[in-house]
Amino acid sequence: MSYQAPDKNLLPRSSVIINGALSQGSGISLPHIYPATGQVTGDIHLGSPADIDAAVAAARKAAPSWRALPGDKRRDLMFKLAALIERDAATLTHLCAVENGNAISGTMYMSYDGAQKFRYFGGWADKIQGAVISTWGGPAHDYVAYEPYGVIGAIIPWNGPFFATTMVVAPALAAGNCLVVKAPELAPYSVLRLGELFIEAGFPPGVFNVVAGGPDIGAAMVAHPGIDKIQFVGSGPTAKKVLRTAAETLKPCGLELGGKSAVIVFADADLQFAAQRGLSGAISANGQGCVNGTRLLVERPIYDQYLAMLGGIAGHIKIGDPLDQSTILGPVISESALNRILGIIGQAKQEGGRIVTGGERLGGDAANGFYLPITIVADVANDSNIAQHEVFGPVLSVTPFDSEEEAIELANGTAYGLGAYVHTQNLSRAHRMASALDSGMIHVNGSGEGMTPCAPFGGMKQSGYGRLGGEAGLHEFLRIKNVWMGLAKPQGA
Ligand code: NAD
User: What is the pTM of this model?
Assistant: First the structure.
């Protein structure tokens, strides 16, 4: 396996963008490690809480005029940004791959999808409408208005930073908010490059601010009195810390958290299609996607056949250099993540899981990177660790089921409720399953194709609350105001 070197000329020139100016953070420096080779691509000068103060001040200063800017003007700026993202799609694709090892065959999609989100939500910016409501009692004009919060703080994880950032920023901007975004310390490049494009697109200074940083920066944002709402994208344990801090100021928080999404394959499914989608959906973002279908539930009569199909397809998936167009699967984010995943696989074996393929770190010329081949663990009990918790690597657990009722019970039998995927050719069963599954996103005969900017995305149970995407996503960033105006004639008039 050979590796192309990351192009250092494409790396962003700063780690902080505040009030339209590029600079370096005033916190500690952290080397950025390229997961494919374990080599350092550069030093990230992380932001400090003082940088958050400056970013919030800039956003607060910009907020009144951004809110007052007519919707069509906000729309035009967002369309301009979308065009710049498309112009620079190759660079963004490269940065998305370098920052966390995601293969460019997948990150190309993220770049274009980001542009589409700014187009979709730009289209909403001039269509935010309230309502006149009927009144009780005397003559009055009673209406509902939707208004921006002011300043939104967005906390972004490392596994798909560009995707997550555009998912939050596009609706928040369209709604008339300014933003302070925390770019993840492990993978900050694409979000910082996006910040440069905001400047080029001509957004007023302070509307979009970025600070690359770690947990201290996130905590400073949640505690900051100048931030009106937090949109957090990350894990459940961190979300609980966020909520505890937010309780001090009663700050509203939207939570997009992890998942343990089931893929339910019935015997009547198009098996070849289901196996291909089952595998590609599980390993997208190198298996480090919140909504990946990593928990396969397969109807018993086809269980062995389906496992054999999965194993066969896995053998043809190209693993290797993320910067090679033909690579499908890259490395996981870090050495420690890889060791954690290997520990989960070891435990699954002890608990009766059977390794169909994979299970060992890749050696040879891949040994310096953090590579795990596709790992399929069959005969997994639904209450075991590997079936209950996020693995965050290219690891699928497989469990048989005997009836539709059992499939529903198993699928709903985790603390999460982000996605669920059903493969069947039986239409009424598909509807029954969609109704019975406790997940925010259900795909029938698919593996994520419906996750478009116009669809509401978000979780149930411990996968979070709030929605990003679609009209619901816009309303996450709007506050409701009711105005009642008495119309009675003054006495004596
Ligand atoms: P994480 O929870 O460890 O960190 C998320 C972000 O929170 C990071 O930027 C981190 O620096 C910050 N943070 C850490 N401590 C904080 C604190 N006390 N206060 C405020 N911020 C703090 O998650 P991760 O490992 O970066 O990302 C992976 C997780 O994110 C997985 O659980 C994945 O499923 C989830 N995720 C969810 C979605 C979604 O849309 N539902 C999308 C992507 C990732």
Answer: 0.97
Give the residue numbers spanning the domain of 439.
261-444
Residue closest via CA to ligand 1's atom 30 equals: 234
Q: Kindly name the residue from 99, 185, 299, 390 that is annotated as catalytic.
A: 390
Query: How many domains does the structure of the chain reveal?
Result: 2
Residues 316 and 195 in one domain: no
Ligand 1 binding pocket includes 222 (Cβ within 6 Å) = yes
Q: Per-residue confidence at 357, pLDDT binned at 50, 70, 90? A: very high
Q: Give the number of the atom of ligand 1 that is nearest the alpha carbon of residue 239.
A: 2
- CA–CA distance, 55 with 243 (Å, rounded to integer): 22
The b/e string for 201-211 (b: 16+ C-beta within 10 A; e otherwise) is bebbbbbbbbb
Mention every residue, 6+ apart, whose C-beta is less than 8 A from residue 12.
95, 188, 189, 192, 193, 195, 196
Q: Is 165 in the pocket of ligand 1 (CB under 6 A)?
A: no
Listed in sequence order, the residues at least 6 apart from 331 whose beta carbon sits closer than 8 Å to its beta carbon are 35, 36, 101, 286, 322, 338, 366, 369, 370, 371, 372
CB 58 within 8 Å of CB 181: no
Mean pLDDT of the chain: 97
Of 88, 80, 110, 71, residue with least CA distance to 198: 80
- Residue 113 sits in the same domain as residue 51: yes
Question: In this predicted model, what pLDDT tens digit does every residue of 129-142 receive, in sequence order?
Answer: 999 999 888 899 99
**Ligand 1 atom nearest residue 256's Cα:** 41
For the four alpha carbons of 99, 29, 26 and 52, in that order, the dihedral sign comes to: positive
The three state secondary structure string of 414-455 is CCCCCEEEEECCCHHHHHHHHHHCCCCEEEECCCCCCCCCCC
- Does any ligand 1 atom lie closer than 6 A to the CB of residue 446? no
Place of tokens 């700014």: 118
If asked whether residues 162 and 16 sit together in one domain, one would say yes
Catalytic site residue from 96, 185, 229, 256: 256
Q: How far is the CA of 288 from the centre of ligand 1 (A)?
A: 12
| One domain, residues 367 and 280 | yes
